[in-house]
Amino acid sequence: MTTPLRELEWPDLADIGALDEQLFGQDAWSARSWWAELAGRPRRRYTVATQGERIVGYGGIDCAGATADVMTIGVDPAAQGAGVGRALLAHLLRQAREAGAEALLLEVRADNDRARNLYLRAGFEHIQTRRNYYRPDNVDAHILRADLKVTA
Ligand SMILES: CC(C)(COP(=O)(O)OP(=O)(O)OC[C@H]1O[C@@H](n2cnc3c(N)ncnc32)[C@H](O)[C@@H]1OP(=O)(O)O)[C@@H](O)C(=O)NCCC(=O)NCCS
C-alpha cells in the first residue's frame, strides 16, 4: 500500500508538535523550534505522511550544499511497522538528491534498533560513533551516511 505524502504546512504544526512529544518526550522540539524549522524553507524541507485527514508521520531534511542532513523522522506508534517510515525516508533521500546533495547524513541513538534498521536497509552506512553523546544515559550516537550517487 502506498503512503500519501505531502509538504508540511503551518496549520499542521499543532498535530506535529503533539506527535513529536509522544515520540520523543522531553527531547521533543518546542513549538518555537517547529515554527523556526518551517520558516527555514526552502533550505529546510518537511514532509508529512497521512492516512485520510490524519497525520501519521513526519520527516525533514536540511539541504545546504553537497551534504544534506536528516533533521528528524517519526511515525505515530499506531501506524508503525507498516512502511510509513520507509516511505518517508525514501522521499527525503529523493528530495536531497534533487536538491543537488551528494550525501545525506543523520545521527541516531545506538540503542534505537528500529530506526537503525530502517536506515541501514535504506542504504545508509555507519561512518562514525560519538561516544556517550546522549545524556543523561550516556548512549552513543551513530552517524550514518547515504551516498546519493548510489542509493536508489
Ligand atoms: C523509526 C521509525 C520512524 C520507523 O518507522 P516505521 O513506519 O515503523 O518503519 P517501517 O514500517 O517503514 O519499517 C521500515 C524498517 O524499519 C525497521 N523496523 C520497523 N519496525 C521494526 C521493529 N519493530 N523492530 C526492528 N526494526 C523495525 C525494519 O528494518 C523495517 O524494514 P523492513 O520492514 O523491510 O524489515 C519509527 O519506529 C519511529 O517513529 N520511532 C520513534 C521515533 C524515532 O526513533 N525516530 C528516529 C530518530 S533517529
Automatic annotation (TrEMBL):
N-acetyltransferase domain sequence ranges: 3-145
Enzyme class: transferase
Matches recorded under InterPro entries: AcTrfase_RimI/Ard1 (IPR006464), Acyl_CoA_acyltransferase (IPR016181), Bact_Acetyltransf (IPR050832), GNAT_dom (IPR000182)
Principal cellular location given in the protein's record: cytoplasm
Subcellular location per the Swiss-Prot or TrEMBL entry: Cytoplasm
EC numbers, comma separated: 2.3.1.266
SUPFAM superfamilies in the record: Acyl-CoA N-acyltransferases (Nat)
Catalytic activities: N-terminal L-alanyl-[ribosomal protein bS18] + acetyl-CoA = N-terminal N(alpha)-acetyl-L-alanyl-[ribosomal protein bS18] + CoA + H(+)
Superkingdom to which the source organism belongs: Bacteria
This protein's GO CC annotations: cytoplasm
Any one Pfam family match given in the protein's UniProt record, by short name: Acetyltransf_1
Keywords: Acyltransferase, Cytoplasm, Transferase
GO molecular function: protein-N-terminal-alanine acetyltransferase activity
UniProt cross-references to PROSITE patterns, sorted A to Z: GNAT
Family to which this protein belongs: Belongs to the acetyltransferase family. RimI subfamily.
Function summary: Acetylates the N-terminal alanine of ribosomal protein bS18.
Protein name, UniProt field: [Ribosomal protein bS18]-alanine N-acetyltransferase
